[in-house]
Design a protein that fits this description.
The complex is a heterodimer of chains A (462) and B (114). Chain A is an all-alpha fold and 462 residues long. Chain A has a domain of 200 residues. In chain A, 75% of the residues lie in helices and 0% in strands. Chain A contains 19 helices and no strands. Chain B has one domain: Helix Hairpins. Chain B has three helices and no strands. Chain B is elongated and about 65 Å long. Classes of the chains: A mainly alpha (462), B mainly alpha (114).
Chain lengths: 462, 114
Amino acid sequence: MNAIIFSAGWGIIMMFCSFLVKNQSSYRHIAAVGLLVLLAANIFDTYGVDFFHIDSGKMLAYTRFGFVFNSIAIASTLIYVLLTGRDIERLGRYTAEFFTLVFFVLCGVCLLSAYNNLLMLFLGIEILTIPLYILTGSDKRNLKSNEAALKYFLMGSFSTGLMLMGIALMYGGTGTFLLESSRLQSNLYHGISFLEIVGLLFLLASMCFKVSAAPFHFWTPDVYDGAPSVVTSFMATIVKVAGFIAFLKLCTVRMSVTSTAIDWKLIFSIIIILTLLFGNITAIFQQSVKRMLAYSSISQAGFMLFALFSMNEYASKGLLMYSVAYCLATIGLFAVLVKMKDVTFEGYNGLAKTQPVLAATNAIFLFSLAGIPLTAGFLAKYYMLASIIKTGTYTWVVVAGVLFAAISVYYYFRVIQAMYFKNGEPQMESFGRSFKLGLVVLAAIIIIVGAFPQALFNWLYF
Amino acid sequence: MPIQYYIILAAALFCIGVTGVLIRRNAIIIFMCVELMLNSVNLLLVAFSKMHYAISSANNKGTAAITTGTDAQLFVFFIMVVAAAEVSVGLAIIVMMYRNVHSTDVNFLNRLKN
């Protein structure tokens, strides 16, 4: 409860800052302090110190897994604000409002990691996405940003409609909105009703929309490309992973109960293959690094879907690892990308000669995304593949996953090739020493987590 | 009135909404169709709420707990609130778009394709 209340509260504080504090550059410091407070409050909560004793009536269920994920999301946001705070200021006059919306998004993330009731799932998803519509369109004079915002808004509200229909049908079938213990408490509704299955299919479609899985992924490249790069960085990482956390809970609780009536594993294996196929194949043909990263986020979503397929202990550990590896690497890549004046592959030509530190850290982030050993991304992919092997069925999905991971190496390494083996003079915005230091710390975290995964997993138990 | 009537009406409204979203080209009309979808869900939730109350009282010999099914009616209020929030953001986005291109036709949304 700490994190939910603190994030909403600090969002309101940021709103007041926008007219009480005149100095533009102090907003990001206030936001960073707020995120630190939020992180501390969440860690207190992890160890049983709850400042607010609010009885949510079984609507929210706190687990260690959810707390650890909250900490990861808040810490990633902190890194994001520290690295790209200056670029957010360049976006326009409304810096404080930008951070306000970021805090509200975090409130949605914290709801999604703890929900135990379909009402909370709905509210969490909406608190998460409504601020994002505004953030996507925050570059008001830019037509591409406008277009991305409108597209995202229309698609997002449509998928909300689908989700609500699903929830209503599930309610019709079971008589409760609670996720757990629904069937146990009511002996009225034996068996699995037809309405519940249809409702779950609606929910599946709308969640696929939110996490940009295959048949519903078509909005992703346009929106990620059109949104200002600083927003894309946030949207493609923390928000997407939070969607997966919510999706995983829905699958493990509701879908595993109904698995006798419908073959979820088959549906998920088809979604996985399609997502990996579309994401990887189209990413190969992109000329802009930003658009390539948008497609790569689809293909990474395909790997995160492995967790929903297998739903065992490896899957939840793997999803946690994936959220660290993917969020940090993508935030780092975007932090460099917003400094570039030209975001095509040619724009990166010769970066290693002019900015060796940026090029080296960028290479580590790309290694992590591609899944090269010794980085966190490798272990994340390892856990995902291992989780499917543990289930003992559908091993061809693993084979396909490995093949697609090999394809992804091609387009990630094109950036490295441009940076190291081509000549050119990359045009960049100015940046300070602290920016480089931040990137080095980020790369170090990725390697440390990759070398000592227990550092992360021990947190789940101690 | 049997529950089937409500379910069929809600399903019909929902299908009209979905079809409208898929075939109309005006952003405001698409948006209205989304609202239609949300309102069909509201209708369905209220109908299910009464249905569960009736089932419960029939099973317990005419004495159901007074709270049976109220959670769905609460849900309807939440949907209304969220829909209002979405309207305020969505119309702002459509106005922003209109200021720049003087049209609300979604066929104009093709700058990102290439």
